[in-house]
Design brief:
Helix content: 55-70%
Largest sheet: 3 strands, parallel
Number of strands: 5
Order of helices and strands: EHHEHHEHHEHE
Strand content: 5-15%
Structural class: alpha/beta
Distance between the termini: 47 Å
Amino acid sequence: MEEVIGIDTNVIVRFLTKDDLEQYERAKELVADNKVFIPLTVILETEWVLRFAYEFTQEQISAAFRLFFGLENVRVQHLDIIKIALCWEKKGLDFADALHLAACQEASCFATFDRKLYKRAVDVNSCEIIKL
């Protein structure tokens, strides 16, 4: 079995922001020398950290994700779902909401109390949105 190393949010954040040069170099070396795996939960947390702690814009986050996910040694859990979420985010959905909704495409409907999500999501997906 091929060895793959799962990585945490802080490794991706160091790699993308270079805000701590020593940790950036270690993260860069880890990714260059190993196959790494990023779980869906880490992607969700990374988006949140980049947006709120580092004040990245939606465009900056999308570009950073595309760059990182495109690296040869990087494997991403449910990349197809993440791509859909990034696309829907461009259409006005919050990334977390878009990711939740994209992950539920096998369901017949998606229920929410969130009126803003309902308004923005009703036209972007194949799953019926139910506003509670």
